[in-house]
Batch of 2 targets.
Target 1
Amino acid sequence: DAKTTQPNSMESNEEEPVHLPCNHSTISGTDYIHWYRQLPSQGPEYVIHGLTSNVNNRMASLAIAEDRKSSTLILHRATLRDAAVYYCILRDGGYNNNDMRFGAGTRLTVKP
Amino acid sequence: DAGVIQSPRHEVTEMGQEVTLRCKPISGHNSLFWYRQTMMRGLELLIYFNNNVPIDDSGMPEDRFSAKMPNASFSTLKIQPSEPRDSAVYFCASSSGGVETQYFGPGTRLLVL
């Protein structure tokens, strides 16, 4: 499986933008880039995903490098509720391949 | 929809006892996943089902662990006999297949004494 590399931890101030990086240099053409986050004492929850183009939703934006070897999750205005572990995951869009493997993720701390 | 439902939410048992964790996926979802989370190993995929059929159980630690999905609305993960190293949070997730979003339950926190 293609692997991702993320910083172990990051800090942000409340109401400021946060850019969470992810490197995936061995990504294949059929791999989707997914982001999930896990709030304290909860199960992971979906944030956003993309294949080639940048994506926006109500939670965040996903910026994908032109060569697709890296991506950045952007939280436009961090709140205290955004403090969580963020996971960047590659998922093969091939048939019958719907498992998902989590790495260590990035622990985001948001300071008031 | 109530989301993925797991029971019990907390379980404390003694070494050697049988433990059964339960999961009800979101209605209409045809894929179900069992994960285990510990501080040391993070989130690990144990097994997943498509249309009630186990597809990949390579993450199941050993023969003490077994999982079943008798129908589309219910799955169990059983540990027999349990050991202290099985202490972890066990999550169940479901999806509509492929690379569709996985929806996680609240987890079962298991402590084996």
Target 2
Amino acid sequence: DAKTTQPPSMDCAEGRAANLPCNHSTISGNEYVYWYRQIHSQGPQYIIHGLKNNETNEMASLIITEDRKSSTLILPHATLRDTAVYYCIVRVANRDDKIIFGKGTRLHILP
Amino acid sequence: DTAVSQTPKYLVTQMGNDKSIKCEQNLGHDTMYWYKQDSKKFLKIMFSYNNKELIINETVPNRFSPKSPDKAHLNLHINSLELGDSAVYFCASSQAGRGGEQYFGPGTRLTVT
């Protein structure tokens, strides 16, 4: 079973920041937080991952709380193309291990 | 410059047939995976191979047999297809020591009639 809890769906206005929360209260010390998304009819796409420090790349920012029990993925300026299911996953990094996908959050970007 | 490619994209076949799905990655990764996404959109791991060796084999019927001729290819052969095999099958690849992120192919939609 997935070790994360996400809201089933969220709406965000186009051009605004989309903030997607994730709870992972049982995360272990050596587990990272990963985010993937799946745009309709496409394969999942890696977005970002982090251990305890905040991370930013060209796609998004990842904010992890100090106790590491929750995190937020931020899409700074959402566009219609960001409409997708977003998956928050915790797993040990640098290993060739399976990804256990939960139900994710269906993000709707509204024009 | 496709990173992970799958063929075919769509596959429609009848019950009882045998079919194969092919996957290729040009990322130089040493691990490849097969995932299944059912009609309820749940994504689940089926198999993974590292350098042509099977390392993950989830509870999958014996009718499914992965084959890795080299580390850039992982094919999925399915015998005696059943209605319940209808799903989207995704191939993925990753490289150990680079962060663990996996790169997925576009998927193969299998419909068994």
